[in-house]
Amino acid sequence: MATEPCWDDKLPSEEIQKSHAAFDGELGDVTGARAAAEGFLGALARTSLPTAQEHWDDILLVVTELAANAVQYAPGPFELTLRRTYDGVHVMMHDTSVTSPEPRPFHPSKGGGGIGWYLIHTLCDEVSVVVHDEGRQRGKDIHVFLPW
């Protein structure tokens, strides 16, 4: 019995050009955002391996930090979008706060963080923040570009 070949018209690389996930903004959503990013990177690696292993880890770390900041400083839902670029990965995090992130002093003896925004700027090739004061998408978009 003959069967027809089974495939679709999309190339594998076309299927993983972009990933989008929305979250309620609960503490567990930080893990969900990291898992969504890992799924995107896994699919991306099937057609385009990272040029260095640390690129994978850096992207996961930045996504985790952005998601944690969204939960802590911008209560409410947040959205994560990852997109393949020519030489890397564009990560965009949208949250409900109209306040741009600012570096905070780091006091290791007192705890309480303070290194996240520095870490993001260190690992990323480019970082920008776009604030939306009005409309349905009120909040901000944080755009970061990382090598792949």
Task: Give an overview in words.
There is one protein chain. The chain has 148 residues and is of the alpha+beta class. The protein contains 4 helices and 5 strands; from the N terminus they run H-E-H-H-E-E-H-E-E. It has a 5-stranded antiparallel β-sheet with strand order 1-2-3-5-4, with helices on one face. Helix 2 packs antiparallel against helix 3 and helix 3 packs antiparallel against helix 4. The protein is globular.
Q: Which key features would you list for this structure?
A:
alpha+beta; 148 residues; 5 strands; single chain; globular; 5-stranded antiparallel beta sheet; disordered N terminus
Radius of gyration: 17 Å
Distance from N terminus to C terminus (CA atoms, Å) equals 45 Å
Strand order of the main beta sheet, please? 1-2-3-5-4
Could you give the order of the helices and strands?
A: HEHHEEHEE
Number of strands: 5
Low-confidence stretches: 1-15
Structural class: alpha+beta
Biggest sheet features = 5 strands, antiparallel
Mean pLDDT: 88
- Any idea what the shape is? globular
Strand content: 25-35%
How much helix is in the residues?
25-40%
SS field, number of helical segments: 4
Quick take:
The chain has 148 residues and is an alpha+beta fold. It is built from 4 helices and 5 strands; from the N terminus they run αβααββαββ.
Detail the topology: elements first, then pairings.
Elements: H1 12-15, E1 18-23, H2 29-45, H3 53-73, E2 78-84, E3 88-95, H4 116-123, E4 126-132, E5 139-147
Antiparallel strand pairs: 1-2, 2-3, 3-5, 4-5
Helix pairs in contact: 2-3, 3-4
